[in-house]
Write a structure and sequence with these properties.
Length: about 190
């Protein structure tokens, strides 16, 4: 097994690619029936999206409070247009919480995550990008520094912005989440093979 850290454009390595070369696993260690691996992968991804939804809802509540406090202290909220953008983002943070509750309720009721996990994941990934874009925009030039004199909170917001670019790819792309929502929630025709 080879583990290779992947460096993203923020310069950090937060995840890896893992190669399994010539790895053999005893048959009694196999999870589920033969040739049903995709079902397992889908269930695992659904659980990842569902489990993260509550964690992200509380994380964004804290991040939003921190951003409001910071912007207020820097006088960045004197402009009504900035306040308007912040208010829109605040509404989305609250919707994120409601979506998370819906996802966890579905998990409790049916025993598996189901397609509502895709709604939560899509909403969260789009919010992540909007949130950090807003932070970087409203913090001005010093908000773009990742380190050194003048960097705002050690570059926390611009680093978040750089990470957020991959949010609509990780745990399944936004297009795949939209396909799941379209087909399994809205009952639209299936994606052609
Ligand atoms: C930050 C980050 C963290 C990650 N963490 C992990 C991890 O911990 N573990 C792990 O295993 N993987 C991880 N990944 C990998 C991630 O799950 C995949 O990159 C992602 O699922 C997309 O798969 P792919 O790269 O093969 O793209 P592809 O499936 O090749 O897709 C390429 C493009 O085609 C589009 N596309 C593909 N199929 C369709 C379709 N049917 N309809 C419409 N559009 C389509 C996609 O939306 C995308 O834009 C991570 C990726 C990122 C960016």
């Amino acid at each position: 097994m080879t583990v290779q850290p992947l460096r993203d454009m923020s310069g950090q390595s937060r995840f890896c690619q893992v190669f399994f070369d010539q790895v053999r696993v005893p048959i009694d260690e196999r999870l589920g029936p033969e040739n049903q691996g995709w079902e397992l992968a889908r269930t695992t991804l659904g659980n990842e999206r569902a489990a993260r939804s509550l964690v992200e809802a509380s994380a964004y509540r804290r991040r939003m409070d921190a951003l409001i406090e910071l912007l207020r202290a820097r006088g960045a909220l004197d402009d009504p247009l900035s306040r308007d953008r912040l208010a829109r983002c605040e509404i989305r943070v609250r919707i994120l919480s409601l979506n998370a509750i819906r996802t966890v309720a579905a998990l409790q009721a049916q025993g598996f995550a189901g397609p509502s996990a895709s709604t939560a994941r899509l909403y969260h990934s789009l919010l992540e990008q909007e949130f950090y874009q807003l932070g970087v925009d409203l913090l001005g030039q010093s908000g773009l520094l990742t380190a050194g004199t003048g960097a705002v909170q050690n570059g926390r917001w611009v680093t978040g912005y750089l990470h957020s670019r991959g949010a609509t790819i990780g745990a399944g792309t936004a297009e795949i989440q939209r396909n799941t929502i379209g087909e399994q929630i809205l009952g639209l025709p299936r994606d052609s093979p």
